[in-house]
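Posting here for the record, re: WTA.
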Amino acid sequence: MSDSHSKLYPPPPQIVAGAHVSGMAAYEKLCAEAQADYPGYWARLAREMVSWKQPFTKVLNDSNAPFFKWFEDGTLNASYNCLDRNVERGLGDKVAIIFETDDGKITRVTYRELLERTCRLANALKAQGVKKGDRVVIYMPMSVEGVVAMQACARIGATHSVVFGGFSAQSLRDRIQDAGAVMVLTADEQVRGGKQLPLKAIVDEALGMGGCETVRKVIVYRRTGGQVAFDAARDLWLHEVTQNQPTTCEPEWVEAEHPLFLLYTSGSTGKPKGVQHSTGGYLLHAALTTKWTFDLKDKDIFWCTADIGWVTGHTYIAYGPLALGGTELVFEGVPTFPDAGRFWRMIQDHKVTIFYTAPTAIRSLIKAAESNEAVHPKRYDLSSLRILGSVGEPINPAAWEWYHANVGGGRCPIVDTWWQTETGGHMITPLPGATPLVPGSCTLPFPGIDAAIVDETGQDVPHGQGGILVIKKPWPSMIRTIWGDPERFKKSYYPPELKGYYLAGDGASRDPQTGYFTITGRIDDVLNVSGHRMGTMEIESALVSCTELVAEAAVVGRPDETTGEAICAFVVLKRPRPTGEEAKKIANELRNWVAKEIGPIAKPKDIRFGDNLPKTRSGKIMRRLLRSIARGEPITQDTSTLENPAILDQLAQSN
Ligand code: WTA
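Prediction output follows.
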């Protein structure tokens, strides 16, 4: 990265002036404050950013590491912080959410309205017997109702678990069962890219599979009016249950450590894990990072394009911007409908000032703009923009430069934010009014975050050398545990050889001169496809569960120009290896099978059939060889321990 300095982008003076963190000296001062008195630093910010019912006196409790507690004797309510507090500050008539549907209809919801809608639903949930600590699964489209559902759970102390609307009935069932949810909130259908897609029918199917007996009620938001089956004993319409409810509801004041939500994410082994987040520490970091990383101010129009089914939609749609009393745009649809100029048109129409999206979206819109002038961002007035953001996967320098020049008009800093479902909020990121940027680098840790790169024994590696990304000190918004599996939490994130450091699962390196971080990708068996996290084992188990066809399967990732990584599956069938048209047909069957088991996002792009898989004499699949084959690279690795070397040629030719 030594030539990277020639590509340094200093923060633009118009952003530095008046930024919440203005200039590198201000950044360094915050880091020094955290360094000098770590708990004191977080306590100061927790008092400034969060309204407490019962102020905390304890800051960090590390007596039972790695099960850390923050602000444990304080009480608060997340929904009070996001809604009531803003109304009390005189922001009742301020627009909280501008909502645009797939077909372009726009509604504006003020803070007062959002509070009233939240209270009505909160009262309805209580009337149905939902209590503090109960888990509620939310399987809803991008909508005001989706945000209201999350806020209403928070208001009564119920722990929400949002499941992305693209997951299959099987995945939904597994999550409902693992969480032991008492209720599911859903919609009749969702609308994306001009198509109506079922949601309620998938909930019915999931509940019908058995194992979800904890669910007492299903509340259905009527989005399209499409036909859905209704179980009179179990199902309720959202508009009916909220109709006569009061528009006020006393918040349930919960302890800071009370679980605000569970969010399932993929790990390297086994089933997806329910990442459990706290209320106090999480809310602090959601608000603080929204303020510093996006420099959110009163007049900004903030747009995070993520879905509420992912952590980005939690922290930067449902909580962070609302905790600050900001105005945000929420979008139902997809970037390519009715055409690939949709994002640019929406930025123009709503005068968006801060835009936060994923590299995959940028890369696919670059492709579209290159083949069709009419959807090129230069055809739109994007002059309202002042800050751009990127999240979910590494952004390659070429995409960064294009985003900077064509969307940001060369004047908007790009905050390349590295973080994870487990971290709750940004961990390594530029601050727009302070950090000089280098394309492709997420630059420096957020003030107070002790990020480092170490080797397998937990020793720091020198700058310029690759290693394992860790966070050395606990931080307020960190994962508290894996729901129902504290042992797996410890094993996954705090392996003994790493000296009590949090293991992120990513590889990284630091620039010798600047100390800037560059993320090189996952070091475990997790794939990142279009910014969606998936475990290779999860996809393998989905494939082998097709017991009629599949004898064995191995899944690896390979680089892909648009989606970052692509899923590549090697499959041994229970019948002779197919070729030609038959191979294509079976590959398609298997793709659909995986879509049904997990969801369309998990469909393998490549499926290759072999008579066997490359294995060691002890029967272990040699994945590194499969990775080379998937990339179309010659095999240079040692194959002497391979039981069946001839299989390599067969697999290489089977594409
Ligand atoms: C990757 C999404 C490079 C990384 C917020 C991480 C990134 C995983 C970046 C978490 C970035 C996220 N640069 N890689 N700016 N942001 N990642 O849990 O591999 O869905 O471990 O959280 O995405 O994905 P998750």
